[in-house]
Each structure stands twice: as C-alpha cells, then as structure tokens.
Amino acid sequence: MMTSLQRVSLALGLGVTSCTALKPPPSPTLRVVYFEIPVRNLDRAIAFYSKTFGVTLERQTIDGHAMALFPDDGRSEGATGALAHGESYEPSKKGTRVYFATPDLDATLRRALHAGARLLYPKTDLGSLGYVAEVEDSEGNRIALHMKKP
To answer: How is domain 31-147 classified at the CATH fold level?
Structure first.
C-alpha cells in the first residue's frame, strides 16, 4: 500500500518514496514585509492610529477593499502595512500580534489610551529585548508596542 506522500510524488513524477528525500532547501531569513490590520470602521481606526503614532495614513482601494496605508519611506527597516476594511477582515484579540516599534513606550501608551485603547498587558521589562506593552485598538485588535533599551 502506498503512502499519501508516495502517491503525490508518483503523480508529480518525482518518484520520491520517503520524507527524507523531501528536505527543504536552505533558505535566507524569513521576514514579514507587509501586514493588514482588520477594521470595522476605517475612519475610527484611522483616527486611533493617527493619534497614537502621530502619523498620516493614506487612503486607497486595493483589490476592492478600503484601506489606509501606514507611511513608508522605502528606506526604513521593518514591515509596512495597512488598516483594511472588507468582508474577509475581522478584528480579533486572538490572532496574530503586530508589534509597533516606538522610541518612547510610555508616551505612545498614553496616547493610545487617550485615543480609546484598552490596556491588555502593562509595560513590561523583557531584559535585553527591551520593553513591551499591549493594548486593544479601537476595532478590537490586540496590538503590541515595543521599545528597545537605550
């Protein structure tokens, strides 16, 4: 009796009969390059993120979805992303967490709370990894704030 791996391998003409033959090739570091934060109300979310981070988001329609892009100068490190509104976007505190870097965690946390965030995880010292705090944004998503130590 053939295993499912053997059947797939045979169908693809690979002739592979064991898992050891399917070792993935070595790969470079995998990094996130873009993210989308689901929102229920794009105007409210734009106001929240603009107040929290002091940035201007750019409204666009992408693939039929209303979005607001975070600023990206094309030279800075890290991923860029957007607030996204549409049928397939459902805010949640239980999904992926996006960590936003900030040079002043206390000030950013104060602005987030003033903009309507709810504190989920207070500022915590992570030793050499810096500091982190987590809030619930205006749409019900869990987001994290991270600050490196000086």
So the answer is: 2,3-Dihydroxybiphenyl 1,2-Dioxygenase; domain 1 (3.10.180)
